[in-house]
Amino acid sequence: MENRTNWFEGRIPLGELRAFLRRKVVPAHRHTFWYLFGGLTLLFFVVQLVSGVLLSLYYQPTPATAYESVARISDEIQFGWIVRGIHHWSAHLLVFCSLVHMASKYFFVAYRKPREGTWISGVILLGVVLGFAFTGYLLPWTTEGYFATLIGVEIPASMPLVGEVIARVLRGGDYVDGATLTRVFSLHAIILPLVSLVLIAFHLIQNQYTGSAVPKGERGSGGIPFSPDFIYRDALAWIAGIMFLLTLVLFFPVSTTQKADILASPPEGIRPEWYFIPLYQTIKWLPGSILGVNTEILINIATSVFILSLILLPWIHKNRDETITGVDRVFRVVGITGIFYVVLTMVIAYTMP
What we know:
Strand order of the largest sheet: 1-2
Shape: globular
Number of strands: 4
Distance between the termini: 64 Å
Mean pLDDT: 89
Order of helices and strands: HHEHHHHHHHEHHEEHHH
Largest sheet: 2 strands, antiparallel
């Protein structure tokens, strides 16, 4: 056993890694709990990756076979319904933990110098996670997935100059059909995983280099050794996350609904998944045009400005004081208002369809 350990030590610097983990310290303060959502986000990403690979062994990305292959996974393949349920529910948990992680960093003002790179990569990763969610919705080739994708693809089509090009690239043609399914599968199973792996590696390296951010205005009470103390906390959070995931899988199994018919009319009451509800509900509330301008164009412009503002936030909110200022309070109010609006749109969408 000792010879085997020496063999690995001579090729992989395990000793240096252990020493680094022992030196690493996580800031200790009353909001340390929120650090756990970064680890949970990584956990559910790995679960998505593993379960997605298993599903791809049986999934067939064509309109004639997609629905049937998913039904076969659920009904005939041993433990297939469990793997599909894990993939389905871990996608929801991945989006939820990503949003909580991003929100906590916003309120920590974690984007202040020198963590701009960590923040920007996190914003892009959140976009990639939502890209996973959007592209995965069509793959079972169900009625809900088809018409939700049809609506989702048409939203950017109204953008001036580039809108129709973006929509055409997403569709793979003029309509949402078999070419769209193939393209979406390639994005979901190949392109986005590769992009996310590169971004995650950069994000983690940046975090190790700059350390975890302490909330602005918070006085830390020392530090928690990452190994073994915080690893134990992360492990407990991961165990709780896995238990919650399995509870969802067992008590709320994923059903295979009606197969998509591209010639049929959209069913009544169709709406996107919960994480796209704020955008959907906003479009639904607004009139078709405002001051003679198509509302979808205004929504696309507002969304683009919002995303750009998130990316540039380290330079928009560049107060370097470690004490809370009036500007900081304004940004907190903006964040709280945003969360309230998101929750309000979801409550209304699900209680007053």
